Amino acid sequence: MDTVLLLLAAAIALHLLRARYQRGRIILLGRHLSSFQLERHMETLTEGYARAIGEQDPSRQRQVLEMFAQTENAVASQVQSLADLLQKEPAESTRMGMLPFCVPYVERLLPSMTRDFRQLLQIHAAGLRHVADNREQWDPKSRAFHLSAELYLFQHSCHWFCKSRTVADARLLARHKVTHQKVLESVCAQTRNAYLRWQQNTSTP
Question: Distance between CA atoms of 111 and 105, rounded to whole angstroms?
Fold first, then answer.
């Protein structure tokens, strides 16, 4: 019985510690996000793209997609501004664990098992700008597809930083009915290659 009580107490203590740790990360990221309108812009784009895909007339579909050019540029610019703001945060505050689950203060316990969220945000910012500027000369529908993937991956990274990779994977699947692997395959090659280098810890600081 004493062992059971000790294990229960330890589990409760770990849960409280993890909740406190995650709350600190949510506050950190939320403080910077409050300066922007990213959530509203992302909702506008995802709903707009879905509406455009439902259009049967190709010319009408193109017209609908072209309506979102200003919002697409705003998202790309704001993610870059967010990435620049996070550069001012200390490295210890922006390290994120690579394990599937949250280990509170893993950046202190196992720094080799962490990566820098600041670098990841720069990867997202560069990828969003690349697609928003349509440097690959995609048709409007293909461009919208790739930009959606860029937005989903960015959202996944924010959830991963605040909670854990497992939670981020689950939210991505629940909200957008797509897996992390599928999203990674759907972003532009620039984002995908940089993201994989970041995961392997071979990205340029």
Answer: 9
